[in-house]
Design goal:
Blueprint (H helix, E strand, L loop, with lengths): L4 H10 L17 E2 H12 L4 H17 L2 E2 L3 H16 L6 H13 L5
Parallel strand pairs: 1-2
Helix pairs in contact: 2-3, 4-5
Length: about 110
């Protein structure tokens, strides 16, 4: 299961120290996209106080050490191109980062939530 950034941001804001993905284990092992890693790291640098930055950094670094991170690959780029073009044909759009996260999920065989 590819975990989206929003899920992890909510967990950090709640003060969760450990994440339990077992309720969704039937989707397979949890992972994140390198794009999600980047979004989380941006959040560390944008923290409004030193204490928040330290707390956020500890959460993010712990997560990055514990969960597999899927890279952007040529296959992800191919799926991304097809996805964005298909959405455009349907008159729909998707944010750039969300499109890369979705493409990573699709190219890697993960369910995107």
């Amino acid at each position: 299961m590819l975990i989206d950034t929003g899920v992890l941001i909510r967990a950090e804001r709640r003060g969760d120290s450990a994440l339990d993905f077992s309720p969704w284990s039937h989707y397979g092992d949890a992972a994140i996209s390198v794009v999600t890693a980047s979004e989380l790291l941006v959040g560390v640098h944008r923290a409004t106080s030193k204490s928040r930055r330290v707390r956020r950094s500890a959460f993010v670094e712990g997560l990055l050490a514990a969960i597999p991170i899927l890279d952007l690959t040529l296959e992800v780029a191919r799926v991304h191109g097809e996805l964005v073009a298909l959405l455009a044909e349907q008159g729909q759009t998707m944010g750039a980062n969300d499109a890369f996260i979705a493409a990573t999920a699709l190219a890697s065989g993960y369910a995107h939530h």
